Amino acid sequence: MAVTKIIFLDIPTVLSVPTSPNTWKVRLTLNYKELTYGTKWVETTDIESVCKSLGIPPTSVLTDGTPKYTLPALIDNTFTPPAFLSDSTPIIEYLERTYPDPDSSRALCPPASRALHALFEYHVAHSITAQLLPVMVMHMYDKKTPRDQVHFRERTEAALGKKLEDIELKGKEREEHWKKIEGAFDLLETVMRTRSGAGELFTGPNLSLADCTLGGLLLALRYDSPDEAWMKVSSWSDRKWIRYMAALSKWTAVE
Ligand SMILES: N[C@@H](CCC(=O)N[C@@H](CS)C(=O)NCC(=O)O)C(=O)O
Ligand SMILES: *[C@@H]1O[C@H](CO)[C@@H](O)[C@H](O)[C@H]1NC(C)=O
């Protein structure tokens, strides 16, 4: 049996699958590259203490100067010294650099595409991800482990000064908010249609960093909210996102 040298840190849920878009982004990459890895499941409550004890760097600094630790993170013991990595895009860039595909047409983020990818990530973060909380907060909460529910409620309510239940939009406001999100997805589908050639993904049949980002987001919506978010998303843009997920499904296994 191969010794697992790559340890991938992901966040558990009460489901059999994770629901973090950022950890999915890296898991898709590991699966696409067919790398052997093991998952270390770390509840959000423990991210800081676990990362500190393992020597994984923080991903940002809070306004009060304290370092912030987030997942995904990855330790690669293949080499000496091992690599200790955090932050999804740098992890993916490391994996590309360290384990390049011999077939260059399968590259996830060739150096020449980095600026375009950065623009794509910025766009998705602002037009979609940042809009999700008012319609997704209770779905996200429901799928967390009991300990993480406590932690999520405390931090989110402190940050926004409202009960989780009051962050959630209801009725007409909720439907209008979903319409805005639909508009952002429709725009993506419109630009994706301008590409000629086979394949449902961003650059064709093979995965790119853009697909890891968008795919991670879609997987999070599908698993966190199969009955609301995914029902909506799967009906948008002439069912584009159903075809997209089918194309992605080769790389969505959770070992
Ligand atoms: N820039 C980071 C963001 C990662 C991030 O925000 N991860 C979330 C889960 S999706 C997290 O770790 N949250 C835990 C926390 O905020 O304590 C990346 O792309 O990896
Ligand atoms: C996708 O990858 C395959 C190898 O798996 C390669 O033969 C093919 O050329 C790639 N397609 C494109 C459009 O890059």
TrEMBL record:
Residues 1-16 form the signal peptide. Keywords: Signal. Pfam families: GST_C_7 (PF22041), GST_N_3 (PF13417). InterPro entries: Glutathione-S-Trfase_C_sf, Glutathione_S-Trfase_N, GST_UstS-like_C, Thioredoxin-like_sf. Residues 10-103 form the GST N-terminal domain. One of its GO terms (biological process) is L-phenylalanine catabolic process. GO terms for molecular function: glutathione transferase activity; maleylacetoacetate isomerase activity. This is GST N-terminal domain-containing protein. It comes from Suillus luteus UH-Slu-Lm8-n1.
